[in-house]
Amino acid sequence: MMPDILEGPVAGWLQCYTSNCVSQGQVDQIILYLKNEGLVLDHEGTVRWRDLADQLTSLCQPKRAYQQSTGEGDGSETQDTANNSTAMNELAIFERLGTVINAIVKVPLSNLLPSCRYEAEPHTTAYDETSESQHHLAGALRLIVSPSPNAPRCSTAATSDIAVSFAFKSENESDDAINDNRWKTLCSAAHALHSDCRRKHTYSITIENNRMSLWYFSRSHLAKSQEFDLLDVRAVVHALSALIFSNVEDLGYDANIRRISEWDEDAKEDHIRYIYRLDHRFLKTLKCRSEYDNLCIVGRATRVWEVIEVTSFDDIAPLPHAQRMILRDVWLGHDSETEREIQEMIFERCDELGRNFPPANDARLYGVDDATRTLLRERLRDGSYKQLFLTIEADHRGARSKPPAEGFTPVHAICGESVYCSQAAIGHASCMERASTSVAPSAADASATVKPQASVPREYKPRQRNCVVYREVCSALHELDDLYDVVQALLDALLALQILFLVSWIHRDVSSGNILSFEGRGKLSDLEYAKEFNLSIGGRSSDRRTGTPIFMAWEVHSRTTIFKERIYVVDMAAYEAEETPEPSLLVDSTLHNFQHDLESIWWILTWLVFTHIPGQDCAEAIVEMFHSRSSRFGIARNDLLTDHKRCQERLESLRQDLPPVIRAGLLTMRVALHNGYLERGTSIGDMSSYSPIYGQFRNILETIAAAVPRSSIRLVPPRR
């Protein structure tokens, strides 16, 4: 895994990550203005800050005084005094910098207008309206014109108005304090991006004693400039001016999304809403149905909104006869197909198969009974298979993140330890993308998604905002309160997966959030990671691991196979040359295949039965099997899938008054999956080895549905 933070020259950072609109001549003009204001002066042929150098030097004094006074005693009072003195000096330096910044704002430059100004105390506690939380900032560049002009003003600065955050620490403090300061910078950026969906990217400036660095945070990558001297007037003026005179769009605010405050008559309070402009249509958000982990920076940052169509940014009354819809806002790779494009490819294959349905002896229909074969043929022939998927009303490609700056490379230990896209970094490290199989526990596991993880070095490709509008307003499986409705939705999702199998496509991200219920029927959603099943790549797999950890097939999760036999080829010529050849794997059986999608169905039903049926004493089993941070997570899941006795024991912890068919059904599904892996072996291209399992699962789910009539088993989501 590669670290997320890239570092490179200051000039390259300014050129790539800002609008780079301030010329060297304009830098001269700004410095002349600062001279006239008495903020800089000429000193032995160079330009220097007035008083700032002395203030920086004074930061060293408290620690020296403390060291001289302690001797053999504890010196606790002197240490407190030193800490207070350091904090006061830091504040004084920031006040001086703020004066410089707000002087730059006043410089009249041709064709350039300032977009932000410096904010100091008492406004450096930023307020996040979405989470109603606050976080402290050492200082900030705040937009002069708020993106929410009608939002109620408060004593603290709304996070959405903060274009650039500052963090400052003296190098005389411990390394832990410096590293903590950098983590705070990451978390401040995470809060900024999470609090306002307009944000495409955000910025921070860190100052450690007399060293300044510039930071860029986006959905594709993070980039930090190399440090430069705070006493270098020209460098500092150029860096600050590049941000101050960037327009609002360049500072990371998406012009196709407007943020408003609207009075809710029922709740008797204001609500923050967004207006999305998708080509010539405008959609107003009503409520958020699902959103990503608020401490993630890099990644898809998926938000799902319930929306209604309005006339324009300024006329936000619903259009006549407008119906509520769903808008999915997600950041995809800039060269990735959108969900609509993928759905159209799948539907084209389905329509072709409907015109030329395969004969009964086709490998894809091996073991399929006559009734199911007739159902599949009719669904494909009349196009009603489309009812198993969401109806896409609109699809829009929007803003794009910047590509990595030329010459920037990944850096390690930038915050005191290696920063990776994984569970290795804890605590503050949650600000980084979670790209491994470790995500938040309990109910949060149901909505957190593992980002694709390649077996090759990471490429920092730009991401692009994609907005998809769905006609149906559905409920996710984990939102349902009746087991009967869950099983019915799973049956329809199973049929959708079998249709994908018939056209040789795999979903690769089957989860409780991607199987939806609409008017009592199920729909399979989120086709972003769906792909055609293809064995032609050969050798070691470059297939990318995707999915939600607690629903992910064990082979995909662990990158190991349940069937252990391997087929190797050896280069005999290497032996003749007296070399020691490396055996190469002829077939990688961990490629995501059709049964992996089916295994996710089993994990979903198992998770819901264990976690959403109240009155059960199975807390230990839940922690081991469905908390992906549990130390036994991998072992427990492997045992449940491959050890029949262990699975029986776990199922015994369920409520004893549940219909026995629930335990028997889950156990029988386990047997079907385990046998499928063992019997298939490495022949993952054998289509006939998959087809019988769809029928086995269908029979089990239909039997469970008959035993749990509507309202007989209520479901209650666990507390977060």
Automatic annotation (TrEMBL):
Matching Pfam families: Pkinase_fungal (PF17667)
Start and end residues of each Fungal-type protein kinase domain: 157-609
Signal peptide location: none
Gene3D superfamilies on file: Transferase(Phosphotransferase) domain 1
TM region positions: none
SUPFAM superfamilies attached to this UniProt entry: Protein kinase-like (PK-like)
Name this polypeptide is given: Fungal-type protein kinase domain-containing protein
Originating organism: Trametes coccinea (strain BRFM310) (Pycnoporus coccineus)
